[in-house]
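G., the chain you wanted modeled:
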Amino acid sequence: MYNYAGVITILNFIFAAIIGIYFLRLLLTQNNSSQAVARESRSELEKLAKLRSLKLSEPLSEKTRPQSFNEIIGQEDAIKMLRAALCGPNPQHILIYGPPGVGKTAAARLVLEEAKINPISPFGSKATFIELDAATARFDERGIADPLIGSVHDPIYQGAGPMGVAGIPQPKPGAVSKAHGGILFIDEIGELHNIQINKLLKVLEDRKVLLESAYYNKENSKIPEHIHSIFQKGLPADFRLVGATTRSPNEIVPAIRSRCLEVYFKPLTASDIMTIAENASRRISMEIDETALTTIGKYAQNGREAVNLVQISAGLALVEKRKNILPSDVEWLVNCSKLQPRHSIKLANTPQVGLAYGMAVVNNHTGALLEVEAAVKHQKNGKGKIRISGIVSEEEFGGNGHKIRRRSMAQDSVENVLTMLAKEFKIEIDNYDIHINFSGGAPVDGPSAGITISTALYSAFTGIAVSNKVVMTGEVSLRGQIKPVGGVIDKLRAASRDKQVQIAIIPQENWQDAFSDYPGVRVIPVSDFSMALPYVLTEFAEIHKVATAGQ
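Predicted structure as tokens:
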């Protein structure tokens, strides 16, 4: 009889040997693989150590980064508003508008640090400041990756790990969850994708993030409790949003704006730029000539540009073995960099006929002075002509994908003024050739230049000189009334910066009690054009006679 038991025993032995050899080889392979990985890791660590041992000198821009509010130049009002909004018992969401390089990020960081030590503030000592650049934040509409809101790493994705092998979806928190209990600072918030904006609005409302996955099953006992909790109750996201943008307010989604307090960082003045440049030169132990500082103040548009000009000029000086920055260093750099000087108007040294100065607002809520010239020449038989120069004939405005083209509002202001002068002062407009010029690419901000145009034309018609110490703003109606305008605070700041300006005329409806003692300039409110004439023209008696006759 055949011995089947012996055969089975031999086969079992052979199978056991084969399996043993297989696992032995597998173990040896794993050991070899682990040793190879360890060797590769050691090699890479050595390379990293060598790379980390190589360090360049710290850039001046890093050395000059503000460490206190006093080091943020020219933004006192904005910082005061930030502190009031974030350091109290009920901190607000905030939108910060302003050009680059004026200290928006630094101010937000410093405000959180102050709030953390304020006993009435809800921000704890461990409150975090999470920063996200909306312009570079990786985003996928399928939800695979979202560094802002967060995403779920489903088992099908490469690198899902042991949990993925077990079929468990893994939530990945985004910036809103990492900022829980602190501040989420989104730089260039206007660049966020529309889907991200909608998700962010939901998070701001719910104060938590709700994540979804087709692979999640609440009945699955293999899924850890913390993941069950995340899917069922959400990730906490109670933070305060601080969004910064260089865009104008009408370019930001209204739903975001409605939830935020808006704070405006103003562009730096030439004086602010000079202070920043002087502080930067002190940080690197370089002397800088006053004329060189003035040149930097004339050409640099923000703090970063000022610091860069100082650093490169200092490099030029050190190459030539000098410890001081000369005006020629800065002038050479400005020419090589092809920088353009900032817009500025220099007031005339003496009163002039047909030359008046207004106040305007340019980009990013910057106040500036405006120069308007007017010349008239009498013509017979009502054949006079009107010329306007120095402005564009058409304007385009709008946002959110809608653009509207219209005729320049400055042209409309000129026509309103001419009608007013003909009606109120009996000037026969048709009998004159009239030329109105807005000098130097002037920042004409719509109808608010009306009173300045009126003054220049009235001066040209009467031959009475306009004071070179008075600036003005206001819309002029067909009846000579001065209507309210926007940006008065920014305009008055521009007036007070010019030491030659003594009087600033504004519409009566724009008057505030704080203007009664405004630093550096006397503010006069007027409700009609005749009220302004004694302040803007030099011959008071003649003004009164002509104005009375006109009435």
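Residues 541-551 have pLDDT under 50 and may be disordered.

Shout if anything looks off.
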